[in-house]
User: Fold these one by one.
Assistant:
Number 1:
Amino acid sequence: MIAMPKLIPAPVWSDLSLSIAKGETSQVQHLVEQYNLDVNAFVDSGSWMPLLMEALLSYGFATEDERLPLLKYLLDKGADPNIRCLRGYNCVHIAVQQEKYRKALDLFLDHHADVNIGDEDGSNIVYWAIQGWLLRKDTGSGSAKPESGSAATADHDSAPGSAATADRAAHLRILEKILALGANLDQENRFGMCARLWLQGAAPDVKAVVARWELAKPVIQPSTTTQPVFPTGLHYPEIAMKIWTELVPKTGIANTVHGELLQAVERLRDDAQHNGISKNRRQQKRTARFIRDTLIDSKLFDDVEIERIRTNTGRLIRNSRPYTSDDIYDHLVDQVCIYYKQKPPRMAIRMD
């Protein structure tokens, strides 16, 4: 609906998902081009995972180098690495926390990564960069271990000196890129922790990178990415999306009752949440009555549900202030979905 993120169309999703799972980059590209897919759409209404994240996490690629062409293709098509999934993290959060995605992280940073977006706990990217791999004290010798008790001790093995040196140089270069994008070292997560606190125990080379950056008096960039709002309050999100995408026109009156009902509910929601007190309260009342009467006259609902429909639409009709909470609108959307399931499409009723 108005605030609902886009989904990959159901007819193409199965083939696309299978191609990603098999690591078939050329076939994914073919499907995206053939169906003109929105590369920022989500794969389903269960996990609400963006397409780019699906490609990042696929087990179909034996190496990261094999995965990078697909990620680069999607990014060049406009995929946004900053968009979070339902669980509250995005592709950059994933990449910065797992060494096997280091090249993907580098790629995301080159495609407008929003470095101060917090994950589900509010931790930004520089927090994870320092807390994860930059707390290690090894600077290329290959024999040093992380400090006992540090977060980096888990799953850490000594590497040959040349490999450790190369990895360390890559980590420091990526840290410089994160800082250059305006990272906030003092951004606290919900546990009151921030990157600067972890920096206290970091290696000298890490502290030196940060010190040089701060000498230049950098500008901290606030997060500007608009995140999707997931319809977690709906019982029938897939049906609601189907009605919205197939039966609600971009402008004007829908040609089915189903489309007109959903458009009416979402128009009331949008007016209340974004426009404040409307000058056209008379039209809003007529819209609420249209929703009430159409649903009740359908004879699909029992007495208890009819009373709830009357009560909820009545609050929209009688309230002098806009009703901004989602609960009433979500309830009415669910009833429209039930109407869709039980009634075949008919021509829309105009609200004269």
Number 2:
Amino acid sequence: MTEMRLTALQLNELELMRAGAYGHALRYELPDKGPHHATLLFPGAFEDVSLTLLDTEATPVARVRVLERHADARGTWLGGLVEVTREPARPTFPELRPSSTMAPVSDATLLLGRRSGKLDGTVIAIDSGDAHALAQTVRGLRTDGLDLRVLPEPAALHVSGADRTELLEHLASVVFASNVRVIRGEQKAPGDGVVVLFTGLSGSGKSTIARQVTRQLRAETNQRVTLLDGDEVRAMLSSGLGFSREDRELNVRRIGWVASQISAHGGIAICAPIAPYESMRQEVREMAERAGRFILVHVATSLEECEARDRKGLYAKARAGQIAEFTGISDPYEEPLDADVRVGASGESAESSAAAVVATIVGSSEAAYII
């Protein structure tokens, strides 16, 4: 049976489903059914008839009987009935969440972001997957003696932009209050940390540029800078993983999680895996932006140039069929369309590429980044 480990926001979505926020049926729908439905995106091809859902600790908590599916560039959307097989771990502030026994109210304020002014009555805070940030928000609101609720933010990967705000407002009105008004608080990231994710083909120069960026940042900032290079992470953090799509995604997910922890404590994490899949880069972005800033760097060195370098002989082996699922040859590289910095396409040096990346990190930051 195929398994899938849910993110914090996907667990939130399951929690909302069980609380009746999407109707009486426990069911995932395909994204074309509209924003007010729970959806599930499997990262890759899916041909099985059922899927076991794991929580963030890899414990099986539910099973999906797959009735329909739709594949696109991001993976496979699954529709089907959900059976909860085990209670997930208790979330933060369970007494304030939709599954609690608190009676609904007539009016409430949905707070998006951090509070920036005086509030009264019933206030709904958003759980965006960052327990520390949620605890800070709840603690501050409790100090004012407000009546509190906590709305789990769903992954809702089929909804973006202003539609996400509308979805949160709709969910709040279903589970907490008949009339909900939205207030946008401070949207500033909760911390000063930064995750910088380099992506590019093998041999593109990611590691060389990342090391140069690390050296420059250590000289120009007062924050701790940690380099999570692809090869070193493979040897330590991801030892034992292969190069299937599932293992590659797990490798990038691990890197993203560690980088987000570094960022949450005010540091700068420089990550240099290949990260060939858009869905995983987006997952890392979501993890990182809960803690601080995220910068995506595309090292866009051409495949021809990477093959010409080929110091390890990997491309030659891949062309000869000796390495399966090699990015750029027998496995796809999905070029990012949302990169904050793009270097390497014009053959510029590692030094000038690093300078462009550092300028993006330091130039758009607050003064706290500069010594």
